[in-house]
Amino acid sequence: METLEQLLTYYSQNWPYVLTEFYRHFLMSAYGVLFAAMAAIPLGILIARKHRLSGWVFSIANVIQTTPALAMLALLMLVMGLGANTVILSLFLYSLLPILRNTYVGITGVEHAYLESGKAMGMTKMQLLRMVELPLSLSVIMAGLRTALVVAIGVTAIGTFVGSGGLGDIIVRGTNVSNGTAIILAGAIPTALMAVMADLLLGWLERRLSPVK
Q: Which bin fits 179, alpha (ψ -120 to 50), beta or left (φ > 0)?
């Protein structure tokens, strides 16, 4: 009960700061995933066409994904210095695998009969991609984007160690004071809510864009 009172007091006294850090946190996460989608979706389509490349591409993406987040941030910091750009690049790298994998699975999972029907109608490869393959694989690709964004929101929290700001600043501040549980929760709760909201929003967008109603 005391922790709840302290939490509410912290929010009442610091809500403009919390909102600012919430916005900064979301922007870094969104930019990282957006840039990753711009790279990974075309690459996923390419390796779905060129299966021989898929093993190499997935091996590289897996190595990146298994690198600890703090180690990744430390390495990038040596090159790019402190700040949000370092975190965004880290999120870009971490978001590649789920989007790449789901794009590959979605494109290769389109039934051959649909492709043959499109070819029989005189569609070009680009028309097949735009009108058949992408709509039919959209739900799988969106699942990859949802996973990437939720993970990115969590990883962004540790960006505070490279001076990026975000809700991680509040969490770390709570760990540095005695009886800081309420301050830790003041940063952790909005982070969790952001992840849930992002997942629900992308789920809604997936349903809106899906050709199957």
A: left
